[in-house]
Amino acid sequence: MKLDSKYFDKIRVRPARSGAAEPERTPVCAWDGCQEPGSHKAPRGRDHEGQYLHFCVDHVRLYNKSYNYFSGLGDDDIQKYLKDSLTGHRPTWTMGSNNSGGAMPSQKPSGRPRRWNGARPRDSFNLFGEGEAAPPPPRRKARTLEVKALTTLGLAENAGGEAIRVRYKALVKQYHPDANGGDRGSEDRLAEVIQAYKLLKASGFC
């Protein structure tokens, strides 16, 4: 194939230019009475996005100082514009709506709808606040260390969480040095009580 063929020239990524490119002409400054070259672009303003005015360096500084995109808008319109800018000025719809109040129309449901038999849904944990809450699951049997911790607190193996907390607070007040006039003779007993309570709390007993 001839490298200077007109067909070869058409499939070039960058076709050869026939002549030298003309230099770009710099527009005249758009400021009234100024004949300097307008080498600096400045936005025209609201409702003219993508359009620019050309100023010289001195007049573009003056233009930028007085430029206000929201010029002519009221406070309500400005607040609405700022709110819409959070979503990129794209339309939004109310969540959980089904083609009501301007909501986005939902897709056509597929399959046959289920019938409601009137039975109340199960709410084992009373999340909706109706009816009585289900009783808590039975506590597992205490292991050796847990039995020892309960004995340290002076409680039976089947003691509940509230009983453990009440007993722990009472023993801390009893053996704390501040309750004994600064006497530290009960510090070892206090440490045993605290360790036993931490063990029971970590095991889920209180």
| Number of DSSP helical runs | 6
Report on the biggest sheet: 2 strands, antiparallel
Round the mean pLDDT to the nearest integer and report it. Answer: 78
End-to-end CA span: 90 Å
- Specify Rg, calculated over alpha carbons: 41 Å
Percentage of residues in helical conformation: 25-40%
Helix/sheet category: mainly alpha
What is the total tally of β strands? 2
- Given the C-alpha coordinates, what overall shape results? elongated
Instruction: Please give the order of strands in the largest beta sheet.
Output: 1-2
The run of helices and strands is: HEEHHHHH
List low-pLDDT spans: none
Query: Hey, roughly how much beta strand do the residues contain?
Result: under 5%
Summarize the structure.
This protein is mainly α and 206 residues long. Helix content is 32%, strand content 4%. It contains six helices and two strands; from the N terminus they run αββααααα.
